[in-house]
Design brief:
The complex is a heterodimer of chains A (283) and B (423). Chain A is α/β, with parallel strands linked by helices and 283 residues long. Chain A has eleven helices and eleven strands. The two termini of chain B are 56 Å apart.
């Protein structure tokens, strides 16, 4: 009986959000001195709209977690931030996304430069079928960020150290990156992303393919990386969001329902849908 | 009331029977395939290996100064009547042969080409002149066929091309130990000839070599570049759809059509010479392009998208993504496509007939612009010739073509091994 009432009320809430074209995100979308600002972002796959008027800031040296049920559009939104969606023919993005005040969808924005400034770590570890060293050095070489071999060696070592992988691989830098364990591969991918010193790192469910121990290592790493980088992370796990992020954004069916400091979201959510999700009533 | 366990158990026997039945279907199919292949190889080999030996007859050749106009000089050696020398030597061997018909049969024991061999021998070694000396000369193809046991002397004379008198002469040579089967060097070093004993495969080998080289140099880079563009870079719109449909259709066009296209464009419009491996290679590359493009695109499509995303994610441009990551991973698959295409081209006859590579060409081509023929066309030409000695040559040419194919395939397989570093 009680269950029935709860479910009905969340359905009602859902309808209110989804069917309301003027729905406004609850909470504070803006931060002071943001690294990236997104305003009224809409994403369409052919005729189907996947993201509705999402506005949110990504602060400096903060980890912002994007949570929400499957298919809510959080990954799609993340992939807009470095224009990874460009590779999908039918995908169309409207709205303003600005990195340090520069519109990333502007004609003058070079997508290669953008992706050098906004790094990305993917859901499935995807090291190149090359050596550990070459994996990390690839982006550095590509952008000509090292003047000589010793500088390159240095960047590779520093990146692997930051990714917490150096001690495990320093004796096999010439061995294939694909021969590492899953957790090591994901840290290698993080090392590859930070080797080119991006301003912002996007992580699309970086731990979903990893076991709890590897996950814990990556989470520690994300916390350390926050000192230098801004990070936007999409995650399925609310616990993970609670552990690593300073702010949390809750997506529901393509709409950004609520944004706020992580502590507030998890202890006193404003919107009913957010509350429903984090208390596990649906999702 | 039967339990789930009983129901499942009752079906097991039937399921296993079905499985083993299918296994046997497969085994039988493979066995049939092996049998046919074995039959083909064995019969071809049994016919073809005989070509390795060729019959020679030792003749007391009269090389006295009288044959060279009294004086043995470089010039008189080059200009001597070697046909006459051989004929008179044969007459001296069998002085009792009379009558034009019999004499002609006698002369027929020695190959028509022996006179050129003899001349070359003397030009190379003038010291041989001045004497009557025993020299091994190439026997006629009928003698060769007889020596290889493929003419039955018990048959009525009218049914044999080698008559009783000729067999008698051969028997006398055999008695005196003056008939010998030697390794058939001319077959591997000469071009085609109307005389089977003179005909060699080398011209066709070189023709095939140049043709395939031209074909490979044109089709592989163009095919790979087209596949990369269409698969990785081209926008998906109506024009690229149209191109794709057309490529798929071209792969199914009969090869002779490509020959006609080559005839119309390369020969008539561009005015390129007939019968040359260059044009042959160009025509064959037109034919193999669709195959290479289609298989290369499949290989590119099989590269996991995660690798592309990884490269794009660190800021590689689309072309860098393709060149640094996608292409190396797709290379083994692309090479497999190239093998299939080139193997097809190597065995292709029809389009080459149309552009004139079926012409009777004796000279061994020295380059892609020299007229020549190719192995499959040579096989076709020889299989069409009436002389029995061409039977073994046809089979031998088939074996050479197969060896060529195996060599080409193993080269590309080796190359693929080298590139295949999927970690």
């Amino acid at each position: 009986m009680n269950e029935q009432v709860k479910s009905d009320s969340s359905n009602l809430l859902e309808r209110e959000v989804v069917d309301n074209p003027d729905f406004v995100t609850v909470g504070d979308i803006a931060v002071e001195n943001p690294a990236m600002t997104c305003r009224d972002v809409n994403v369409y796959y052919a005729d189907k709209q996947a993201i509705f008027d999402v506005s949110v800031d990504i602060g400096r040296n903060e980890v912002i977690a994007m949570i929400g049920p499957s298919g809510c559009g959080k990954s799609t939104f993340l992939r807009c931030l470095n224009r990874m969606n460009d590779t999908i023919e039918i995908c169309r993005v409207t709205g303003d996304i600005a990195l340090e005040g520069e519109d990333i969808y502007a004609r003058s924005m070079d997508v290669v430069l953008l992706r050098a400034r906004v790094g990305m770590v993917f859901q499935k570890p995807n090291p190149f079928p090359k050596s550990v060293y070459d994996n990390v050095a690839y982006g550095v070489r590509l952008h000509g960020l090292a003047r000589n071999k010793s500088e390159l060696d240095d960047i590779v070592e520093q990146s692997l150290k930051k990714a917490g992988l150096w001690n495990e691989v320093n004796d096999r830098l010439d061995k294939p990156g694909t021969g590492l364990s899953g957790g090591q591969q994901q840290r290698l991918c993080i090392a590859r992303a930070i080797a080119i010193s991006p301003e912002l790192i996007l992580m699309d469910e970086p731990c979903s393919a990893l076991d709890p121990i590897a996950t814990a290592r990556i989470e520690d790493l994300i916390d350390e990386l926050r000192q230098q980088y801004s990070i936007a992370i999409v995650t399925h796990s609310m616990q993970q969001a609670a552990r690593v992020s300073q702010r949390t954004a809750y997506f529901h069916l393509g709409k950004l329902v609520e944004v706020g400091p992580t502590n507030d979201i998890f202890t006193k959510p404003i919107h009913g849908l957010t509350e429903g999700y984090i208390t596990g009533r649906f999702g | 009331m039967s339990t789930q366990r009983q129901i499942v158990e009752s079906t097991l026997a039937r399921r296993y029977a079905r499985e083993s039945r299918f296994q046997w279907y497969g085994r039988i199919s493979i066995l049939i395939g092996i049998l046919f292949l074995g039959f083909l190889l064995v019969t071809t080999f049994l016919n073809g290996y005989k070509v390795l030996l060729q019959t020679y007859i030792q003749l007391e050749v009269d090389l006295t100064p009288a044959q060279f106009g009294g004086e043995i000089t470089e010039e008189s050696i080059a200009g001597a009547n070697y046909d006459g020398i051989i004929k008179s030597s044969l007459r001296a061997e069998f002085p009792d042969v009379s009558g034009r018909k019999n004499r002609r049969a006698l002369y027929g024991l020695i190959s028509n080409g022996a006179k050129y061999d003899l001349r070359d021998m003397l030009i190379e070694n003038p010291a041989m002149a001045g004497d009557i000396r025993p020299i091994w000369l190439l026997a006629d193809d009928e003698v060769d066929v007889f020596m290889k046991g493929r003419i039955d002397r018990n048959q009525p004379e009218a049914n044999r091309r080698l008559k009783d008198n000729a067999i008698g002469w051969i028997d006398r040579f055999i008695e005196q130990g003056r008939v010998e089967k030697r390794f058939n060097v001319p077959f591997f070093t000469r071009g085609d000839s109307r005389e089977p004993e003179q005909a060699g495969i080398f011209g066709a080998i070189m023709g095939s070599f140049f043709t395939i080289m031209v074909c490979m140099l044109l089709a592989v880079p163009i095919g790979v570049a087209a596949a990369v563009y269409l698969q990785e870079l081209a926008p998906k719109n109506r024009i690229t759809d149209l191109i794709e449909v057309n490529i798929n259709n071209l792969a199914a066009v009969p090869s002779i059509i490509f020959g006609l296209l080559g005839l119309a464009i390369f020969l008539n419009v561009f005015g390129l010479p007939r019968s040359v491996p260059l044009v042959g290679g160009m025509v064959l590359s037109l034919m193999t392009l669709p195959t290479i493009i289609i298989s290369s695109r499949a290989a590119l499509a099989a590269v996991p998208p995660s690798i592309r995303e990884a490269a794009l994610g660190v800021g590689a441009s689309p072309i860098q993504t393709v060149l640094h990551h996608v292409l190396p991973l797709a290379m083994p698959g692309m090479l497999t496509g190239a093998i299939i295409g080139l193997a097809q081209a190597l065995g292709e006859t029809a389009p080459l007939l149309v552009i004139g590579m079926v012409a009777f060409i004796v000279d061994v081509p020295g380059g892609p612009m020299d007229p020549g023929t190719v192995l499959p066309v040579q096989i076709y030409l020889w299989s069409d010739s009436p002389e029995r000695a061409f039977v073994e040559r046809t089979s031998a040419a088939i074996l050479v073509l197969l060896a060529f194919l195996v060599a080409l395939n193993s080269f590309i397989v080796l190359l693929r091994r080298k590139l295949e570093r999927r970690w």
